[in-house]
Amino acid sequence: MPHHGPVTPDSRPATVADLSGSQSDAATPASLPRRVIVLLISILSLISLLMFGTGAYALTPGAAQWPDAAASTVRVVLLACAVIMVVTAVLAHRHGGTDGQARVAHVLLGVGWILFSQAVIVLLLRLVIGLAGLDDPLRSRAMAVVLAVEVLVLCLWGFRQARRVPAVRRTSIPVAGLGAPVTVAVLADTHFDPWTTPQWSRQVVERVNALGADVVVHAGDLADGQVAQRADQSSHLGEVRARHRFYILGNHEYYSGAAPWHDHMHSLGWTVLVNRHEVITDGGGGSLVVAGVDDPDAARAPVSSSHPRRPGPDVDAALAGAPSGVPVLLLAHQPHLVADARDRVDVQLSGHTHGGQIWPFHYLVRLREPVVAGLSRHGERTRLYVSRGAGFWGPPFRLGAPSEISLLTLVPAAGG
């Protein structure tokens, strides 16, 4: 990712002038060129028809010999779902779009993905069962019923999993040069959105506070929408209790206005790290550098004469002036940024992936990110921890990727 000029670190938080952004920066379909809008709608339409079309084929194959009225009804309903998903998605992302439109689009997107992935599996099973000697129409009818029941159960279960208060996932990480253990509670990808209630946010904060962590970090993707829309949910973050609270911007902040979210979190008492660092004590007479980098999408955000290019991630700037020999904890929203941090920091904390959120989407995530979830080593020095996130994006479903609040205990490495 190209960098756009150095950012000089100092002891102050970044300001709106540093970020050079506003809520009006967020790109909407109405602000995009017509050809881009047409291309995006075309791609979305193809995806929608593929998902629901594959489901219709698996549920109503000719070999099943369903009554014409029943087969036609299923096909019409699924076609309507495909069309409604596209229409509501476009309306929700236009100027003046509503949360209700977004809810409909996101639910249909999630149902369509689950239907598509399970339909592919059922179609393969139908071939296998055919080789075993079970003939149609019984074979195709049985597989269609299995698919319908399976999709219903997975949608209900996935909806429940997505909206629960995340469980705590504990991990211990040895860090050379640390004087005493430091506990770090990690929130990431809360994605306060049309589905998120203030009660859920309050319960998440209560669970974080119960951990008694020395440091609490939010690793980006705070919300979907502007500050005024999500103030009721996000304001509970001001109640987080810890000696230190650090926040970095994720890519979704840049979709709705990074500077207002930066200022909002600063007003709630969080230290916002934009390509800079802070030095804290570890409780045992030693120190720990906590650094944070900007998100790569900062460089792709809309710009104008009044809102110039934002800095983008810059590990050099984030670490400039850091005391030598002191362990470094780096906050970087997207895991692939570890390529720049490798063997320069001790631990990188990231989110962004949601652990794949809805199986088997994690296979697509791996095309971009080196790690989908959990702890991994990169080089001789650096360990990367990727949180599955506390919330969800878009479809209100989680399958095979449970949400989490991460509690990391950084412990002095043996011999070091």
Structure write-up:
By secondary structure, this protein is of the alpha/beta class. Helices cover 39% and strands 15% of the residues. The chain contains twelve helices and twelve strands. The chain has helices spanning 16-19, 34-59, 68-92, 99-131, 138-163, 198-210, 227-234, 253-256, 258-267, 315-319, 338-341, 362-365; strands at residues 167-175, 182-187, 215-218, 244-247, 271-272, 276-281, 287-292, 328-331, 347-350, 374-378, 382-386, 404-412. The strands form two sheets. A six-stranded mixed β-sheet has the order 1-12-2-3-4-5, covered by helices on one side. It starts with 15 loop residues before the first helix and ends with a strand. Mean pLDDT is 88; it is low at 1-30.
Offer a quick outline of the entry.
This protein is an alpha/beta fold and 416 residues long. It is built from 12 helices and 12 strands. The N terminus is likely disordered.
Might you state the CATH topology name of the largest domain?
Purple Acid Phosphatase, chain A, domain 2
- Give the integer mean of the pLDDT values: 88
- Could you give me the name of the CATH homologous superfamily of the largest domain? Metallo-dependent phosphatases
- Termini, distance in Å? 34 Å
Give the H and E element order: HHHHHEEHEHEHHEEEHEHEHEEE
Number of strands: 12
Placed side by side, the strands forming the largest sheet appear as 1-12-2-3-4-5
Strand fraction equals: 15-25%
